[in-house]
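Cross-check.
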Amino acid sequence: MELPEGSRTPGKVALLNRCIYGLKQSPREWYYRLVLFLQPYGFAISSFDPCVLVYSSGNFFITIYMDDITLYGPQNDFMEQTISLLKTEFKVKDMGPLHWLLGIQIDYTETGITLSQPSFVTQILTRFGMLDCNPVILPIDPNQHLTRESEGNPIDPSTYQQIVGSLMYLLTATRPDLAFIITFLSQFNNCANSTHLNAVKRVLRYLKGTHDFKLFYPWGQPLSLTGFTDASYGNCLDTRRSFSE
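Predicted model, tokenized:
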């Protein structure tokens, strides 16, 4: 960073009284500035994520991403009071009800809330030249057995790694149905060949047919997670270990 012309003095430097946008430490300084302001009003850093602040009652949350702030809680007077509180200290633009967040589309219905990423799926398909591919109903061929030594032509592994990495964000945000296949294909990141690449492209074909899948959270019901797990017996052909599903 350099001082503007006309304000430079040989042998001297300038001292910033306030942090400015664009410096490496600016995000950290902004984060602590916001947290220190909200703490006297009953907000505390959560134990599961430092970028999530929890109100003392436990039913109101504030999330921080760069200079974007999102409020979660009942639509009541406290929500409006919190927005007004932030406006007293910072220049705040109220964007209204949340509909998009980090590429996640949020829709409200009479029965609940849905989360989806159709635009992100389209971006992935376009990026890797699979926008016009034929969809499939399963993300992996059940008759195909991949190993680290699977026969195939050499490829640049970075393409394979980029596809897997893109799918990981989709998995962690709105598509838990991809958990098994992405975990499985991640084993071949450093040894991928054309056979592995075709396998991960099949996942893209699966996304082509399921791009409108959504996570649904019904109104008035507890957020309890119900699921099951299984493990194949010695199914990994490389290590003869069981693989969780």
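The helical segments are 26-38, 77-89, 118-127, 157-173, 179-185, 194-209. The mean pLDDT is 88. Passed to J.P. for a second look.
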